[in-house]
Amino acid sequence: MKRKVAVIAHAGKTIGGGLDELRRELRKAGVVDPYWSEVPKSRYAPERVERALADGAELVFVWGGDGMVQRSVDALAGSGVPLAIIPAGTANLFASNLGIPQDIGEAVRIGLDEHARTLDVGKLNGERFAVMAGAGLDAHMIREADGGLKDRFGRLAYVWTASKNIRAEPFEATIEVNDELWYTGKASCILLGNVGSLFGGVEAFDDASPEDGMLEVGVSNAEGIGQWARTVARTAVGSTAKSPFVQVTKAKKITVELDRKVPYELDGGDRKKVKKLKAKVEAGAISVKVPVEA
Q1: Which of 3, 94, 191, 265 can bridge 218 by disulfide, Cβ–Cβ 3.0-4.6 Å?
Q2: Do 257 and 174 touch, CB atoms closer than 8 A?
Q3: Separation CA 260–CA 185 (nearest Å)
Q4: What are 17-61's pLDDT values in tens digits?
Q5: Phi and psi angles of residue 90, each rounded to the nearest 5 degrees, phi first
Q6: pLDDT in tens, 105-115
Q7: Distances in whole angstroms, Cα of residue 251 to Cα of each of 43, 208, 213, 227
Q8: pLDDT above 70 covers what percent of the chain?
Q9: In angstroms, rounded to a whole number, what is the distance separating the alpha carbons of residues 277 and 149?
């Protein structure tokens, strides 16, 4: 018996032959009348995913970037319905960490195959994420890149906005890990990771796994161009944890108190400024279709 397939697509994202090619590839594979919904912004995705689930969807294809995937994961987690990704965004970090290519035909084949992985997700301030969440420098970088810059320059937009914010004043942070004090002092960036790789295969966290029931936790107190250059260089050629400006650990539960409101982000999506972050891991919360070799 054929599965009931849903497609939730970000109308503003495209790869290859666009959504017309996606329709053709699905028809070729025997999916002739999927539940089909296009959204102008990723924030509308959760409601459409919920509609698809209520309509009886047994497999949900998501077309878009990490923000679109994050919003969909937030709605799909715990449902038991698998996620298939067509990576049509700028960075596509979740898809690239899982070996899903930016090829519509191949991504459709992977999505319709039986092979899937049961993965953890993080939950920060009540919202789930699949890749990473952070406060401080990375959130400033993402906030300023969103919109025109990212659309025009892709990943280079992040490099530009990071360079603009590298001199930002650090904030004071108190971080509890599993209900015990782990860090107190100045911080310029706090990262929570479910996977390890950033752009170009750079590993933000060593040995990160979305199947270990833990989140990666990192805090940096690097200030200015010199210290950030040393930190980034260490990340690119070796281990982030060996940088004198970085501390890392693993946790099931994290609470962060800040001395002032700072912006935070989830999977590249900008969120409002806050003084407190509460995060936890939801182990095995989502099933994702991946290549057999992954």
Answers
A1: 191
A2: yes
A3: 13
A4: 999 999 999 999 999 999 999 999 999 999 999 999 999 999 999
A5: -85, -50
A6: 999 999 999 99
A7: 28, 12, 9, 26
A8: 78
A9: 28
